[in-house]
Design brief:
single chain; 187 residues; alpha+beta; Immunoglobulin-like; six-stranded antiparallel beta sheet; 3 helices; 10 strands
Length: 187
């Protein structure tokens, strides 16, 4: 029961961090390689890349953006105080976790969670957070060191999304060029 409450609290803290963390103030993110982007006072940084499609008039339009930021969450732990009396004390620790966020296009089927792959290997699903006209549909997942290692060694990160009113899935592929270098600057 306590573990479930701890997970919910951690998730709520991550969501609060996301809403307070404005990525619109960052310099231009490119589609060729991952790059570090920081706000003016360097107090908040992300690494990011975008996925673009070419329109009929030869202009590029951003369809999706992927970025990783280091989020802070509180982890609650039960510590044994007295073994003989079996008494415990609840404590909290700050924990930093890498968070992968992907802004996806509107008109995605929100009933189907986006699938994340690196070089064809399924890593799991992203969770939709919200949709709006400015960003599209924001999705996220907390990632661990194993996933970071796969991203560092991989060639492509792919996100598959369901398209509304269609049986087809849309494949969005982000190159992992420059990921290791950018991530080392982030942590």
């Amino acid at each position: 029961m306590t573990l479930n409450i701890t997970k919910k609290l951690g998730f709520l803290l991550l969501l609060l961090f996301l809403f307070l963390f404005n990525t619109n103030s960052y310099s231009e993110i490119n589609s060729k390689s991952w790059s570090e982007q920081c706000n003016k006072d360097k107090s908040a940084c992300i690494i990011a890349i975008k996925y673009e499609v070419e329109l009929e008039d030869k202009k590029q339009q951003t369809l999706a953006t992927a970025y990783i930021q280091i989020a802070s969450t509180k982890e609650r732990k039960m510590n044994l105080v007295d073994k003989e009396d079996q008494t415990y004390k609840l404590s909290e620790e700050d924990k930093s976790v890498p968070l992968l966020l992907v802004n996806l296009p509107l008109n995605t089927d929100l009933r189907k969670k986006p699938l994340l792959q690196v070089d064809g290997k399924n890593l799991g699903n992203l969770n939709y957070l919200y949709c709006n006209n400015d960003l599209g549909c924001k999705s996220s997942v907390v990632i661990n060191n194993e996933v970071i290692d796969l991203l560092k060694k991989g060639k492509n990160m792919t996100v598959f999304i369901g398209v509304m009113n269609s049986n087809q899935n849309l494949k969005i592929e982000f190159p992992l060029k420059g990921f290791s270098k950018a991530y080392s600057k982030l942590v």
